[in-house]
């Protein structure tokens, strides 16, 4: 029974991957989706960014789900603390004209929000141009990323299945 559930889950993953990679979006839509995702994940949302992602995906058919969700890979748990630290210091520089050396929670939060909005905006603009260039190059080269990704996922899923006690 567990093996059947696993196989069903595996088929669902593969189906979603195929669907995501075959989305018909323009390079601008993909780049904008990625850029929006970077902006949202750069903000201190405490995990609620995924709710925003779900709302955006439901509301706008032009959003590339794959591009939006892949932004999480860029703003991962190793990068976010550095963004927050830079945000606090940038906010402190903007508000007080010096680096943010304070333990006052309200000041730190204010510095974080001000600095983070600026950094998130900057990162999202960079992300847009990076993604736009990457998508255009990918399409010009006629690369078949779908087959490559499916092959990698199949191999990893086979390993997991082989290592499972019921596999």
Question: What labels would you give this structure?
Answer:
about 170 residues, mainly alpha
> How far is the N terminus from the C terminus?
12 Å
Mean pLDDT level: 81
Biggest β-sheet description: none
Q: SSE order, as H and E?
A: HHHHHHH
Structural class: mainly alpha
**Number of structural domains:** 1
**Number of helical segments with 4 or more residues:** 7
Task: Give the low-confidence spans.
Answer: none
Tell me the radius of gyration: 20 Å
Beta-strand portion reads: under 5%
Which helices and strands appear, and what pairs or packs with what?
Layout: H1 2-21, H2 27-42, H3 49-59, H4 65-74, H5 80-96, H6 105-141, H7 145-163
Helix pairs in contact: 1-7, 2-4, 2-6, 5-6
Describe the structure in your own words.
With 167 residues, the chain is mainly α. It has one domain. The protein is 78% helix and 0% strand. The chain has helices spanning 2-21, 27-42, 49-59, 65-74, 80-96, 105-141, 145-163.
Short description:
The chain has 167 residues and is mostly helical. Helix content is 78%, strand content 0%. It has one domain.
